[in-house]
Structures
1.
Amino acid sequence: MSKMETDTIEAALAEEANRLRRKKLFMALGATVLLAGTGYGAYAHFYLSRFVSTDNAYTAAETAQVTPVVSGIVREVDVVDTQAVKQGDIVARLDDTDARLALEQAEAELGRSIRRVRGYVANDTSFAAQVAAHASSESKAQAQVTAAESDFERARIDLERREALSDSGSVSGDEVTRARNAFESAKANLAAARAAATQSHADLDATIGSREANAALIAGATVDTNPEVALARAKRDQAAVNLERTVIRAPVDGIVAKRTAQVGQQVQAGTPLLAVVPVAQVHVDANFKEVQLGNVRVGQKVEVKSDLYGGKAVYHGVVEGLAGGTGATFATIPAQNATGNWIKVVQRVPVRIRLDPRELAARPLQVGLSMTATVDTSTGT
């Protein structure tokens, strides 16, 4: 066999060996890819499918608006934007001159009401004495009427007798005249006695009525519980509250923001002066696509990362609730899907996530920061 033939055979054998080696490598590569794909598929099915994630998430908080309850002129403002305050800290003061005068007037009116009610109580005793006196006067007047009636009857009989005897001449005309005068006088006295008795009875009724009217003002109550005093006291308490409200305090712990109050500004009740952001109570509003929410439930655990810390800080939270509608539903100009020019767009639903307060204290967050939220749907109830 020639050398050329030998080289040809050796080249063919080498080529065959290379082909077999490549075949084995491709088979190994295919097996590796198949194994990796199968492993990743299993990993995605059994593990990654538990999680839903979105980077359309932002921090939020229930911001407290600080507004005055009473009107007045701003006398001083004790805070500036970005300043940290505690609940109850003084943030502003209004001019309290009018409120102090109103309190003094209310206190004076309360004192006058107490004295007036005490006068009602004293009047009740006075009216009781007057009723007794008028009752006695009425009894006396009735006795005088009885006496006047007796005198009248006696004068009438005496006159009739003398008139009967005057025809026979047994009684002089002068005696008849005196008897007639006595009769007229007795008649007048009886009328006066009856008038006096009527007046005494009327005085008694008037006094009883006055006493009853006075008693209605104090019935069933002491001086302190009398409605008139209670009303004056309530007005005094309201004036005291209004005076206290001229000192405006922070409603929650947080950071001052959007301060608009200026010294000398005339403000009305309800005018926003500033806001306090409770950064210790920050939560996350994560806007998940509707196709991601099939297994999301309240109480599930969430991992949240903040762009503020470059994703290095991981916060742990819990799904606190899902919004009642999509973001588009509550937009200022909602989508008009009933029109002919309709294109289906995947909607997003806000999900509220409560963060661990200890982690927030360690790494504070401000409102409006971008976040990435991942919900573990295998947790929770």
2.
Amino acid sequence: MDETRRDFLKFAAAATATAAIDAHPALAQQAAASTEPGDRVFITNEDSNTISVIDPRSNTVETTINLTSFDEDARPPFRFVTGGVMPAHAAMVHKALYHGCIDAHGAVPSPDGRLLATSGRGSSNVYLIDVVRRAVVGNRPNPLAGAQTNPERLSSGILVGREPHEPTFTRNGRELWVALRGEDRIAILDVERALRQARGVAAGAIVGMIDTVEGPAQVWFDADGQHAFIASQKVSKIDVLRVAPDAHGYSHPQRLTTIDIGAQDKPGFTPFMKTSPDGREVWFAHKLADAVSARSTAAPFDLLDTVALGDKARPNHVEFVENRNGRVVYASLARVDDDGPEGRASSRIAIIDRSAAPGARRVVDSFFSHAREAHGLWTNPANDLLYVAHEQDELPGTPNAGQTCCTAFDVSDPLRPRFIAQIPLGALRLPSGELRNKKSINLVYVRPGQRGQTG
């Protein structure tokens, strides 16, 4: 183990104290007033194949959900650390007999906030997470459990197809649609069957496959769940489907139209989209075009805005904040700028004033995300807190050096966000060693039992 890893393991236990140093007590106290005891922030960590769970009342990591299969057996081929050697993140999933998640990526809550679906891009499957228990559905007791092994054996999840990028629940929660980026298809899962299959009591969770645009990145539904929009990371096109749910809420999809978006996304790389809270607009992040765009969710799905974000901005996700002080769209930028807070490199979040008329929406400001390569964004139900996931580790010489960080902001005034805390994600503690949580992608804020953004 090299000195960098030694240092990380030495200081990972101090993560909670470090988060407190960076927090703004007054803002944190104010923010706590809009949280509830069951609220949690879930972050998928692609390199470590883990999910970090943050309690927004304290802005600390409560637990790390393990999607790896390491240490289920005490024999060397099953261990994460063998003979004192810790594998690099890129190499660890190639260890002999590994059957866990590979490239944990997408994440989305069910409409009632009680279930989370996450995709393993490299393992071609999806996992279901019980939000209240913070546990993987289908895990079972490990017959080899002991001091040197984990108490549970990881579920195999549900095999859906090559390169499942993002899953999305239908508005009624009956189905889970998974964009298969490597197959040019959408897999449709019956959620109840998926739960039973994950628990090993049935099969047949996949009830349909839809051919769609090449390299589908994500599906998102309009407010009443009647239309599905599908973006692509290979071609400059958007598919629009009529969901056509039957009396029981199950879909019978029909393609309505395919829209050419070459004028907005010439490179053909749109990895993320989301509908506005009022359901009237769908916004797209065009990563290689350094822009976002908005379209009407009503036929003929007219273009409303194209917003340039600056050279090599590289937008990842968009998020909406609407409260009494304003209506904005935030876009997380992957670009890292050297002139961040206290001279530290940081990404930015672009602020688009959505109160302007369609066709006139532009970037009015930006703020530093307080870590590098901002990715997932999500707000709390009160729309006064924002959480940001980051792909890169924090820079050396900073309080959280070597750790991937989530950051929290008070957005009670959406046009003037105020930094609350930088939250180091620490490590998953396995019997054979500590696996650093690394490369955060999707982030969701969930309140179980309350209708959320996918509802």
3.
Amino acid sequence: MINVFDILNERGFVAQATDVDQLKQYLSKPSSCYIGFDPTADSLHVGSLVPIMALAHMQRQGHRPVVLVGGGTGLVGDPSGKTEMRQLLTLEQIQFNVGALKKQLSRFLDFGDDKALLVNNADWLVDLRYIEFLRDIGRHFSVNRMLAAESYKVRLETGLNFIEFNYMLLQAYDFYHLAQEFDCRLQMGGDDQWGNIVAGIELIRRKLRRSAYALTFPLLATASGAKMGKTAAGAVWLNSEKTAPFDFCQYWINTDDRDVERFLKLYTFLPLEEIEAVNALDGQDLNVCKSILAFEVTKLVHGSQAALSAIEAAFSIFGQRRIPPDLLPSSDIPRVSGEKADAVPTTVLQKGRLEDGIPAFELFAEIELCDSRSAARRLIEQGGAYVNESRINAVDFRIGAAHLKDGGIVLKAGKKKVHRIKVD
């Protein structure tokens, strides 16, 4: 059986790893691995998909993923990758978020029969006795080495408080606890977590006399340099109430050409030999691959029906993308587009409002196609506003009942942001 390390490495998940040969030996039989998730919100976002997919690959290869939700460390805040202190949450807020995250992660992982575990580090951190913790755990840490960690060096410039300074010890203790309780000896995480993970490995070696391992993921950005999962409108959430499936699907359809192959490897389970065919494609064929990427990721996050509705809605608005039968055949994306647009973000207006017409710049701001009326005016002046595929050429243009087609009006901001108006 192929080693899961090789699968992760070939698909682009591995930035760094400790003792690769020993790690592969550890993964040569069913083993446990864990990743920590921060419960600062009731939903994860696209930036969390790489660690989620890594855990899913682990489970598919017979290993047991342990999802650690930082209910305890969330009360402190992780300084890694941050230039200022996070807002601290209450236990009640964190407990609510933990429940929401487990439901979300259940789309990717099977938690039945202990095939995957979800643990909350509040269960062992909140009741720690401080003096005992300092004596038993703190004595194994060098302050000089801690200050050399990248996560601390960045914060020293803007101010690192004592609560955050303790975070490395707490995360290392998590790893030690999971190694002791579940024989979990592999921690994975973003590359900015390397110092914290290695600290845990050292603690396990000193306290338990066992080997433990680290595997970190590259900190992803798009080819254009944008942070993964961030748009002008904010984060792209995995919760359908925060980011509608249509908008989520559009995020992936709008992938930069240079990112298509890389994202297919990271964010789908399509076979590598099929994905590598993308190298030889360009133009319309590459656009088809973006639709496949969008469909596959939306299916994983929101389910097959939501993915079908979103992709068909995109096809009906932006035009169909016929998929050659020999192109990524493992995807069950529809080969010919449908005519549905139910998944498009929609606002219902009273018909009377359209009788005299609504200034386009007001309507675009009202339905949040633009952030403000002034932004909508600029969009119109720059030729980026459309009603039913026709460019709006005047700032005083009014959208009214005459624009209704099949009971609706389609508005676009540029070629990628779409909203539908329905009449009550």
